[in-house]
Specification:
The chain is mainly beta. It contains five helices and 16 strands. The chain has a single domain, classed as Beta Barrel (Porin). A hairpin with a 5-residue loop joins strand 15 and strand 16. This is Porin domain-containing protein.
Length: 399
């Protein structure tokens, strides 16, 4: 079980508190996805790190089980722990969420501990396949970031104005972990400091509009030391042999690294569910300011139709673009070899773009379970991938 000190503190607090309040009501619920998946590509490499790319069927790549326990400690105080086991990690159990909440009043609830990081609209429920109509959420937006959880404090609020309902979330926290980089073909460490996040969702009847953003200070970790500076050492040595000064090398290192820079993440979109028609759109833009990390512009659009009350067919288009043309971060680098190296690093980190078109079918054969089929085909700019296709079939359920 992977639990850091903060999570252990929350879990321990729940156990101790519960032992002294034997009257506390504990409610268990959970969700699961049991899915067979096969992915193939012209280049032979998997289109996404969580999938195999050899065309073989896998029953573990996208399968998972989760159990959540919520203890009502009375007078507005509660504690929640969510344990999740994913097939891609050999079903090793992890404490994904562990937090304590206090209901100040029916409108406002404050929480502290580890919980979902609201990077995108469905971040809090992206693992719960039953909550959406796709076989899998579009990868262009829901790429499976490692910072899907965060440790900190949040305030959730709900307001009603006539026929309108507004929900908001304010969050402050931090995160340290690893992320997969296509440039190095491995996980690299980095972190978030002092994340400030805001989310809003406005609903009236059959439509919802939403938006959110967060800003963080980046801790560079091995992204800086390995993926960026480690790969630049030969170029730095060449530039020094050409007469580059220590100040010029320092200006180059400051320009390309992430440490101490601002990470910016924002998203917006809408959801329409009217009669038998379902429309979804979500757009996100994110990256690290004044660094070698180009900003990403990603989105998906989806059209769904209820063929029957228990059957929904969804067609979607998704796209993932990276900006490698904005070179303002190199304005302070005047040594030609170092400037060319900075451009090369930007291009290597913006290594991939892709798009895809998918067809999903959802059949609710049980009040708590949905049978889903999905086929996605698209093109990835990486030569190791090229044209790709993914099909999957399985069951998403809640209990």
């Amino acid at each position: 079980m992977n639990c850091n000190n903060a999570v252990k503190w929350v879990i321990g607090g729940v156990m101790v508190t519960s032992s002294f309040t034997s009257y506390a009501e504990i409610v268990f619920n959970g969700f699961a996805s049991l899915r067979a998946t096969a992915a193939d590509s012209d280049g032979g490499a998997p289109p996404f790190p969580t999938l195999h790319g050899d065309g073989d069927v896998s029953f573990s790549d996208e399968s998972l089980f989760a159990l959540q326990a919520r203890a009502d400690l009375s007078e507005g105080l509660s504690a929640t722990v969510q344990m999740i086991a994913e097939g891609q990690d050999d079903f090793e159990v992890e404490a994904r969420w562990a937090y304590v909440s206090y209901e100040i009043n029916p409108q406002h609830t404050v929480s502290m501990g580890r919980f979902a990081n609201p990077s995108f609209y469905q971040s809090e429920y992206q693992n719960v396949g039953y909550t959406h109509n796709f076989g899998r959420l579009p990868k262009a937006v829901y790429a499976g970031f490692d910072f899907t959880t965060i440790e900190g404090i949040s305030l959730d609020s709900n307001f009603v104005f006539g026929e309108y309902a507004l929900s908001t979330k304010l969050l402050y926290g931090s995160w340290r972990g690893t992320t997969y980089l296509a440039a190095t073909q491995q996980d690299e460490s980095f972190g978030f400091k002092d994340e400030i996040s805001v989310r809003l969702e406005l609903t009236k009847g059959w439509w919802t509009v939403y938006g959110g953003f967060f800003i963080v200070e980046i801790e560079g970790g091995s992204v800086d030391t390995n993926a960026i500076l480690g790969n630049a050492q030969q170029a730095i040595a060449l530039a020094q042999s050409q007469g580059a000064s220590a100040a010029q090398v320092k200006a180059f290192e400051d320009a390309v690294t992430w440490d101490g820079k601002n990470g910016l993440y924002g998203y917006t979109g809408f959801h329409i569910d009217y009669d038998r028609v379902i429309l979804d759109f979500e757009y996100a833009d994110y990256g690290v300011e004044d660094s070698s990390d180009g900003f990403n512009q990603v989105w998906y659009t989806a059209f769904g139709y209820r063929v029957f009350d228990d059957t929904i067919v969804t067609l979607h288009h998704e796209k993932f673009l990276q900006d490698n043309k904005d070179l303002d971060f190199l304005n302070g680098v005047d040594q030609p070899t170092l400037k060319a190296t900075g451009i090369a690093i930007r291009n290597s980190l913006a290594l991939r773009e892709f798009d895809g078109i998918g067809l999903s079918v959802r059949y609710d054969f049980h009040p708590n379970a949905a049978l889903k089929f999905q086929y996605v085909a698209g093109e990835d700019t990486r030569p190791s991938v090229g044209d790709y296709s993914i099909w999957s079939a399985g069951v998403d359920l809640i209990f």
